[in-house]
Amino acid sequence: MMAFDRQLRLMDMSIYVLFRGCLQVIANNANAKISRANIPEVEHHLNGIQKIVQLRGGIEKLPMIRQFRTKVALVDMLVAALNNSKPRFPPFFEVQPRIPLPHMQGIDGNLILESPLYGNKPLDQVFRGSPFGEHGVQILQRMRDMTNVVLDHTGMAFYEASGTPVPDYNIIRVGPASKSMISSTNTFRGSSTEEENEQSLLPQSPLTPLIHAANIYTAVLSPLLAPSCLPAPLKPFSTHRNLQSLKALVQALQIPANDSIFVHYPGLMIWILLVAAVAAEGRDERGFLVMFLIRVGSGSVHGYWEEMRESIERFRRIRELVG
Known about the structure:
The chain has about 325 residues and is mostly helical.
């Protein structure tokens, strides 16, 4: 009997080695496609992984390859959000590590996980003293309010039923000018002149990626907030009208000074990158943005997996509404 049990264990280990090898080959191919932002091909590879994982009882049953498991789950969530599809794998709880990520990376202070997609604390408290300033925090709060209305209150129906005044989400104001931040003050909504005003934001300003992400986000979600008696046509994230903001956003993300700031705000970074990556559909910039997303998302296993998962899921639900 003992010999038979030992034989079963050896057989199970052999199956595991073959299983892990097959998954790794598929995953490597998927990574190559991700780096080129070839999302349809990545979906094919995920389908292959799904079939193999089902043979072992599901992704949550893979304790021996935890790092691989979380990477597959992350890519699956991102592909669903970017491609407006359903995740293949069910959500699972990722155990938090003993060493917090800030200490491991030498970052002073706690990471800020709140964003337009996650959290319920007032953002003027969460982002107090942040480099985004009072105006940046106001924009973030407006974006979160818009998200909550669209996802949790079914858009304009909430305002029409409650009699609550409708916020003017279409206006994003550039606050008091500072030479170190921006070179002009304007109100812009998307006309050619206003797009030129957007370009006056300095790329090295931490406010720049935030404002351009908000411009894209507002343009897409605003039709969902139109009065039901005056329906507005939906606009995709990748509409040509968002191109100026997308280019400026990508330029700002490539500046090291901004990278060193946003590393403290992974929740905010996930929102910005999701908006930009979907807006960049069919463009060369998408590969850079998707790989950046995976880099930020991979850090979530060190302390903010659930927050990241919820953020991506809420963005995926927005994609379902706007296409």
